[in-house]
């Protein structure tokens, strides 16, 4: 196999602080005493006394109005991400009323704004400049859910490092990432920004990203401050509708939502962002419990808290504040240090201090956390250190970054199905490929949503370009767009529009028919059909929820017509969420999920379709059969009437937890993902049948690559405790390792479990273990595992 090795994180000397099983990841979120972990920047630790003295002096000089100005975050005009825009921000910076700005990248643009703060305000306090650098700044890596599908922490860290390097030369020193909201509802558009449904994987990814963005010195000119967002519960929006309410039990909140955030505090994340949602009756942005009791007092967070976009103002429609002024009082007293866009702190905090509703000491505390970060970023030494055109020219979109983006992209693709070894395409057997679909040659969609300053016109490599580059003259590519993914062509939309007689729709029908014909004729003259279908990139991301998970537009109809030709069919899906792929699963020979693969996506897809790289991604989120199964996730509870599809006496199964019109099982399970090669798992070996309170259990399995290709496998470890004072899920991911195997190679893969790995929130929310019987599973997917048992003893 012609496997080109691209620069990997290991080659770049990146190390990660997470072990294969992260025993400490979930500990002590509620009851256990702990020493607060300081923000891990060597720079400021060495100079803490000097920093304190400097900031004391500065605060002593500041008027109340100047202090409140530091608590204000304004949006510039680039990539605006919300409803409200303030064209006064330059004047406000000059008057010392802005502490930070975002949506304002560009070394020169940032410098001009910084100059206003440094040279034209009384105290010359520099601005923090932020941006949503989610999966790349200009070199765009795969959408976050795709990065999670790599199950490769080094890849996630590398992506964040490259993003930080590019951004920190281009005027930015703060990113609003990682998003660590745990998600279970693919209707919610922001699943694309998440690491999926599992708390262990999400936590590991969040920590890797914080490490990648921040490095170990915030003042370095290749790092940026990270933001743990959205705190908390946003990912459980009811019915998958964005900004909707979250109502979650205390147990669930602490078991699945809190751990990634706690782990990011321990990893030294510099800032936190509040969530938009109402959490159990209290909007997160006004929650003293979350922002002060948990975050500061229990977890010892020392950075600053920024609200989400106008989230303080939204306390009014939430029905939690009477008016804007009341909202400012609630949010500030709850612990929100910085107001994003809403301008309620600058509008009302001074009055609230005069009325005794907010204390100036508390304002001083918030100002201090923000000034400390400015110090740690090195802004008081040199406010222009992140505005360096020469460095930007060197860093942005350089060859190493592009190669890294290509490597991470190909690692993120998940081979969902591959009958008759349809993939990889056999160059010696085919002369032509029909390439069909609205995403086959769409530069605009390649980089997905939240793609920061990524270019959508020229830079992205499409699948058409990637295949042409890979196959050259050897294989003819017959391209036809063939179908549309636009909602306007959905049957229901067309019918609704016909009611008011829109001729454009009829013309639309005619042009769809023409496109389909072109696709059929391209397919007729080709040996194999490769369809690149899915969702337009704007269908996921913020404010992009859907009620259907089917492929939009007439894509399905076109696939059905192509199927009639009886040729081998490959579907490459580009989408930010799990879709309903039932038809494709039954009718198409091979399906590769490519998420939104980023700037180098077309090359990465060609690497995989051609067999230069064997797919190694695994699903970070369950793919349902239909939207009716949502929420569906692998680590569910068993119920009192679990359904057994294998019971020969199906009458016995009638009054069981099941659907009349669908199997319970998903279409593709969490952790699923095929390879071109074949991995054989030997028997599990346990070092003991028991695990003692101070002991360790060593588990090993021999894994062999018995296929013809070199490839990577993600070996997954799950446990299940049979009985608990709180019922336990049927499986919980406790460890994974992504390992490379040459063809014919065997390796012994070992995991170590300690009682800490088996701890949970027991009855009464007491964190700890309970003695008892456990199943231990190791395998290639959550639904394809081998089982052993052991006992945890007191
Ligand atoms: C989003 C955040 C984002 C912010 C700034 C909000 O609408 O919810 O995730 O960081 O905008 O762009």
Walk me through what this model shows.
The protein is globular. The longest helix has 22 residues, at 503-524. Helix 9 (250-266) links the parallel strand 5 (227-231) and strand 6. By secondary structure, the protein is of the alpha/beta class. It has three domains: 2-17 and 42-177 and 201-227 and 247-253 and 265-392, TIM Barrel (Alpha-Beta Barrel), CATH 3.20.20.300; 405-610, Glycoside hydrolase family 3 C-terminal domain (Rossmann fold), CATH 3.40.50; 677-794, Immunoglobulin-like (Sandwich), CATH 2.60.40.10. The strands form seven sheets. A six-stranded mixed beta sheet has the order 11-16-15-14-12-13, sandwiched between helices. The protein has 23 helices and 26 strands. Bound molecules: beta-D-glucopyranose.
């Amino acid at each position: 196999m012609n496997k080109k090795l691209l620069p990997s994180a290991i080659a770049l000397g990146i190390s990660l602080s997470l072990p294969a099983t992260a025993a400490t990841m979930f500990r002590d979120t509620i009851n256990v005493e702990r020493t607060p972990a300081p923000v891990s920047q060597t720079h400021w630790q060495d100079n803490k006394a000097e920093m304190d003295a400097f900031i004391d002096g500065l605060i002593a000089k500041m008027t109340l109005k100047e202090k409140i100005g530091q608590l204000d975050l304004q949006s510039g005009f680039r990539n605006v991400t919300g409803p409200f825009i303030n064209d006064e921000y330059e004047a406000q910076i000059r008057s010392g009323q802005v502490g930070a700005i975002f949506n304002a990248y560009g070394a020169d643009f940032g410098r001009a704004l910084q100059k206003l703060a440094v040279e034209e305000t009384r105290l010359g306090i520099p601005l923090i400049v932020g941006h949503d650098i989610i999966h790349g700044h200009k070199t765009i890596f795969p959408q976050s859910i795709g990065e999670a599908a790599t199950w490769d922490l080094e890849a996630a860290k590398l992506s964040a490092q490259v993003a930080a390097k590019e951004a920190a030369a281009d005027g930015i020193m703060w990113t609003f990432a990682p998003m660590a909201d745990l998600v279970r509802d693919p209707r919610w558009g922001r699943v694309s920004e998440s690491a999926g449904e599992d708390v262990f994987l999400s936590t590991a990814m969040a920590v890797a990203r914080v490490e990648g963005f921040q490095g170990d010195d915030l003042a370095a000119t290749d790092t940026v401050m990270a933001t743990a967002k959205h705190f908390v519960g946003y990912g459980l929006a009811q019915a998958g509708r964005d900004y909707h309410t979250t109502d979650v039990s205390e147990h669930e909140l602490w078991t699945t939502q809190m751990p990634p955030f706690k782990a990011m505090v321990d990893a030294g994340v510099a800032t936190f962002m509040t969530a938009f949602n109402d959490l159990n009756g209290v909007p997160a942005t006004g929650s003293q419990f979350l922002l002060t009791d948990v975050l500061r007092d229990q977890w010892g967070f020392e950075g600053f808290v920024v609200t989400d976009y106008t989230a303080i103002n939204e306390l009014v429609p939430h029905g939690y504040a009477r008016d804007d002024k009341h909202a400012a009082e609630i949010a500030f007293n709850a612990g929100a240090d910085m107001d994003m866009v809403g301008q309620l702190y600058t509008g009302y905090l001074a009055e609230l201090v005069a009325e005794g509703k907010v204390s100036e000491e508390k304002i001083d505390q918030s100002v201090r956390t923000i000034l400390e970060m400015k110090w740690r970023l090195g802004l008081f030494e040199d406010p222009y250190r992140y505005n360096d055109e020469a460095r930007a020219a060197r860093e942005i979109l350089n060859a190493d970054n592009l190669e890294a983006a290509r490597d991470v992209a190909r690692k993120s693709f998940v081979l969902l199905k591959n009958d008759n070894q349809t993939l990889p395409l056999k160059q010696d057997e085919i002369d032509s490929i029909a390439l069909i679909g609205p995403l086959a040659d769409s530069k605009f969609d390649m980089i997905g949503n939240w793609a920061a300053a990524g270019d959508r016109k020229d830079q992205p490599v499409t699948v058409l370009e990637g295949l042409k580059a890979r196959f050259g003259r050897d294989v003819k590519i017959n391209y036809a767009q063939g179908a549309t993914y636009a909602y306007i062509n959905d049957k229901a939309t067309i019918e609704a529009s016909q009611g008011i007689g829109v001729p454009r729709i009829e013309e639309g029908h005619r042009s769809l028919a023409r496109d389909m014909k072109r696709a059929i004729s391209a397919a007729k003259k080709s040996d194999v059909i490769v369809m690149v279908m899915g969702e337009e990139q704007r269908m996921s991301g913020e404010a992009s929820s859907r009620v259907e998970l089917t492929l939009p537009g007439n894509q399905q109809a076109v696939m059905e017509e192509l199927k009639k030709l009886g040729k081998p069919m490959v579907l490459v899906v580009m989408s930010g969420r799990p879709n309903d792929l039932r038809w494709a699963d039954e009718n198409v020979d091979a399906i590769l999920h490519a998420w939104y693969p980023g700037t180098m996506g077309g090359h990465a897809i060609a690497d995989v379709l051609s067999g230069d790289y064997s797919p190694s991604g695994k699903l970070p989120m369950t793919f349902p059969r239909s939207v009716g199964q949502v929420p569906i996730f692998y680590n569910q509870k068993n119920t009192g009437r679990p359904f057994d599809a294998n019971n020969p006496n199906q009458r016995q199964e009638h009054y069981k937890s099941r659907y009349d019109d669908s199997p319970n099982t998903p279409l593709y399970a969490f952790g699923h993902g095929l390879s071109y090669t074949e991995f054989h798992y030997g028997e599990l070996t346990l070092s003991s049948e028991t695990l003692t309170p101070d002991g360790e259990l060593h588990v090993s399995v021999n894994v062999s690559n018995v296929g013809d290709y070199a490839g990577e496998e993600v070996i997954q470890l799950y446990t299940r405790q049979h009985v608990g004072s709180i019922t336990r899920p049927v499986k919980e991911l406790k460890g994974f390792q992504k390992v490379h195997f040459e063809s014919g190679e065997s390796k012994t893969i070992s995991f170590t479990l300690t009682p800490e790995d088996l701890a949970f929130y027991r009855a009464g929310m007491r964190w700890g273990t309970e003695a008892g019987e456990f199943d231990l599973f190791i395998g290639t997917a959550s639904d394809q595992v081998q089982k052993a048992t052991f006992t945890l003893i007191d």
